[in-house]
Design goal:
Elements (H helix, E strand, L loop, with lengths): L4 H25 L4 H4 L1 H20 L3 H30 L3 H27 L6 E7 L2 E6 L7 H14 L6 H20 L4 H12 L2 H18 L1
Length: 226
């Protein structure tokens, strides 16, 4: 998490357990939700990577901090822009919306590459400048010298996120609405550490998926027996 290595690894462990529960439930009861169900496992990887960032930063291990920061930002800036619309696509039943989510996957891929590849290669004006502590959280500081300003980049990123709410699937919408609400709150209160802090709260939000799946299964079973 954004506060310490212990918190990051602790949240990763919690997400690992939650992800196993979600995945097991989906496999046993409704494989339609499998991609959504494994999402906590993927967030667990991201949170673990930030735990390594903390270790590298605290021990002044520059190479470890750099490598783990790049991995964390791979998820934050690239992977989620593709994975979330893929999940939405997998759950979609309306043909025009499936096409819409394919378009969002392509847009997310292109925009995600724009954000992350320069960080990976450390070339040009958009490379990762440094990882540091802002308050009690990690912040990943990048140059303002880019095609889009940092604020414009945040707006584009968030706008793509809000478009995912057009999913016809109620479980996905409930989960993603919570993620976006937390994203707005974090942006208004902790803008400097928005990437790290929102990723943490988004990760914890995925634990709600299990309860949504359980509730949906019970409702379906009740409907079948009535």
């Amino acid at each position: 998490m954004c506060f310490s290595a212990t918190a990051s690894f602790g949240s990763a462990a919690l997400l690992l357990v939650g992800g196993v529960l979600c995945t097991t439930h989906a496999i046993k009861n409704d494989k339609t939700y499998l991609l959504l169900a494994i999402t906590p496992l993927l967030f667990a990887l991201q949170q673990a990577s930030e735990g390594v960032v903390w270790i590298g930063y605290n021990e002044n291990l520059i190479s470890l901090t750099k490598a783990s920061s790049i991995l964390f930002l791979f998820f934050a800036l690239f992977f989620w822009l593709i994975w979330i619309p893929i999940v939405a696509y997998s759950l979609e039943t309306k043909k025009w919306k499936k096409i819409f989510f394919i378009i969002l996957i392509i847009i997310g891929f292109v925009f995600g590459l724009y954000l992350w590849i320069p960080i990976l290669l450390e070339t040009g004006p958009r490379h990762l400048v440094k990882t540091s502590i802002c308050g009690h959280s990690l912040c990943y500081i990048t140059s303002n010298d880019r095609l889009f300003s940092i604020t414009a980049g945040h707006i584009i990123y968030s706008s793509l996120g809000f478009l995912f709410l057009l999913s016809s699937n109620q479980i996905f919408r409930k989960f993603w609405a919570l993620v976006m609400l937390l994203g707005v709150i974090v942006y208004l209160t902790q803008r400097e550490t928005w990437v790290s802090t929102w990723c943490f709260f988004a990760a914890i939000s995925t634990l709600w998926i299990y309860f949504l799946l359980i509730s949906d299964h019970k409702a379906k079973m009740k409907k079948q027996t009535s």
